[in-house]
């Protein structure tokens, strides 16, 4: 049984006629990096938000680490899921310093332990010197690293990333990709990220391809590149 | 969807936020509903009389006033906003603040002042007669005068909103227009104006709502409008039902306008794109152009602020001795404290309902936000009647003794109903600007809705919250008809005190309470502007 | 956000303070004999400087605290109506007999029992059943430019509808109570049909669409816009003694004509008061009425505010005396209350704006 497991997910926006997600079965293994790939409008960000608990699927079931988060009767709210998320534009709290941002989601009862953890996680993302700065003083790439540190600090177990590379300069992307992979692997988190760029496949252990809200193909990057199922998949992969 | 899912969804949505919001809405609506229940016992004779004789006049006048005021305020507000956004010239900073100052002067006071200026014994006629020997009789107390005053004292609404919108425009948008060969003027008309449509419409809607519910000015100038008609029908003809009918028609009109405005906005709201916004670099004007810009911008400031202020100051010198007493200080204190209490409470309620609205994604949130705007479209007098009737009922049936009636509570309550929309708009735009992502980020980090509200949302919309309090405060100190009806014994505010003198045909004496009122308004406005400037840094 | 907390505390304090500030009026059971109390609550339409001073004097003399709620007469009537027996008001004071009549018709007043008071005021300027009494009165007269017009052209109100006055008449809006009372008196004197025709004729003769107040009409006469203005007598007094030199100039150029002297007399209206039906301070209310009607107060009304005193023992002097004696319309003022709403509707229908 995979770590993250979802079955038969259906989702549509209120007052909308069309389903944004249809019968989606998603799984991700523990400690692995899973990519959700698709063109814009394919529903990939929505799927991510459903995993986070920011949207309520009309139908379907979601389990993480054998704990039921969503089914017909149950809906565990966001704050109780213990899932970390890095937003597309980072969403760092502008009125708080880097230190306070990273501290935000952590258990503050043991101050010493919390401080230790902050340093640990800032070190992990190579941003230790910026601890007293404020978000508006940082560049895009730096903000992203802080956002990552903030999400990692409480040791959530699952990390979701929404288009982590789309805002970055093209020539940096390759380096950032590898850095991210290292950070995620080091922290041992199970990560899911959403992308529309085939180059991001390099760091994924598993891939799911979405088209108009439906799962078109799943597998390891190698499998998918070798045998793309249809024209759309080929197009997405740039083949 | 089956029953179990329904139950699950209900659990998700029914939380303390929704609960409190619904209770607040109930109390805010109750007085208005009370009014409508009296519709049950309808005697339509008076209403028929009105429909035949006065209603066509009310409709015609209200329509003309709204139309032309809307048009003129749009021209003045948008043009000045554009000039101040795009160009740098000497005195532009002062002019920027000056253009808002007319808001400090209530329209009815402007009416007293201008009618005084143009009256037979006023400065213009007097000068013409005594110096030039010319018998000049300029009559301003007609529909043209009303439009003139509404235009020059309400255009700041359009100015402020449009200016705020322009300030957030990305430089790149304007530059691409330039690259495509468009001149400044062309860029303005073909790129900026269409984009600013929603902001401009929003500003004009505010102006029109203010115009439709205004009572003091049209009444004094003898122009029959819905508002004056409602008062007259209710009081002189003694027919509450007919008055309510008129109020309903008025509300219908206002709702139609609001509806049209929202439709024209479409899916779009005021939120701005996520791409990096490069602020506009103001262009320095040449000396010749600077002079033109200054003169152009000074016109509204002259008519909307300088002239009335000068006349008021001259009257003040005539009458100040009558005001050096404890009573006047008490009047000032009354005005101040009531407005602060009202502003704070209104803002708190606005924040609660606005947050609930943005957290919930269904019909409920739409309904809630619409409900809050109801009060603004109802004339203050009508709200006063409703509140009074409602609390008499409550006192009689529930407490069996006088608890609420006759206290300041009624007045503050009525202010909240009337001005919730003002605070709500400010708070809502604050929420719109930050969007949901910070809220969501906080929740992924383990904080529930309420904790997130206090730790993240409120600190981030601090400016809008203060803005809401300031705007509401300003509206309350200027308010007249509602205050007149609901105030307890011996309770005067600066606005009622001023009106009293006008009623007693001692217009010059109305200057001092008016000036103090305006001064408070100016201080508030300047304060508001400085906060805004700080925010932008 | 720490600053918010004191604000919240402040507003909470203000609100609870609100509850303390209200008048402590308990709905006690009705007793037969009125108790002596320390308070008097007035709903009044007029609160000129002279009224403020008289009230302060009354408070000093009697030790009674007077609470004043000033608003338009119609508003006060509405309030009294809605409040019913929970009203805190003891006295209802207006500048219009029609409104007092209406208050009586709505069963909001109780008769004045003090014989002394009733004796001071002639029967034609108090309610025939003593539900209210006037304390001053004034006439609604024609004001004209003494240098340009010969008063022999004037005769009656009815005459103003004659086409010979076309473009010459200046009068304020029919929404004003002074004109509503005048129309009501026309209905009472000549019947509805006649009154309607009269309004029609008057409107056709107006120099301009009604605007401004009585003083504005006088100023317009001097400015040459019209020939005759219909105004209340005290305004002429106020203009002549105005602090504004321009107004004084206007006042000095005007003269008064009392219409209908050969017939029923000139229309008058009053400032008057009645005790509310559910008054809780009846003794103080009666004291107040007596105070307003005593010779000292009455002299002040005529000397300082140019009104005619209701107290039959007080003579006019100064400016008011200079206008001369006149025959008062013998119509009982009590009749005005019945007709003024009809009159208002008629005015709307015939276009008197």
Explain what you see.
The complex is a heterotrimer of chains A (239), B (537) and C (353). With 239 residues, chain A is of the alpha/beta class. Chain A has helices at 44-52, 98-103, 111-124, 140-152, 170-187, 221-226, 231-237, and strands spanning 4-11, 21-28, 33-37, 59-64, 67-70, 83-86, 158-162, 190-195, 206-211, 214-219. Chain A contains seven helices and ten strands. In chain A, strand 7 (158-162), helix 5 (170-187) and strand 8 form a beta-alpha-beta unit. Chain A is globular and about 50 Å long. Chain B has two domains: 15-39 and 321-537, MetI-like fold (Orthogonal Bundle), CATH 1.10.3720; 58-223, Orthogonal Bundle (MetI-like fold), CATH 1.10.3720.10. In chain C, helix 6 (177-190) packs across helix 7 (192-204) and helix 7 crosses helix 14. Chain C is of the alpha/beta class and 353 residues long. The chains are: A alpha/beta (239), B mainly alpha (537), C alpha/beta (353). At the B-C interface, helix 3, helix 12, helix 15, helix 17 and helix 18 of B face helix 1, strand 2, helix 3, helix 8 and helix 10 of C.
Essential attributes:
heterotrimer, A: 239 residues, alpha/beta, six-stranded mixed sheet, four-stranded antiparallel sheet, 24% strand, B: 537 residues, MetI-like fold, 2 domains, two-stranded parallel sheet, 24 helices
What characteristic shape of chain C results from the CA principal axes?
globular
Give the DSSP E fraction of chain B (strand runs of 2 or more residues). under 5%
- What is the name of the CATH superfamily of the largest domain in chain B? MetI-like
Report the total helices of chain C: 14
Count of extended strands of chain B: 2
Looking at the structure, the CATH topology of the largest domain in chain C is D-Maltodextrin-Binding Protein, domain 2
Q: How does CATH name the architecture of the largest domain in chain B? A: Orthogonal Bundle
- Radius of gyration of chain C (CA) equals 22 Å
Q: Concise description?
A:
The complex is a heterotrimer of chains A (239), B (537) and C (353). Chain A has 239 residues and is an alpha/beta fold.
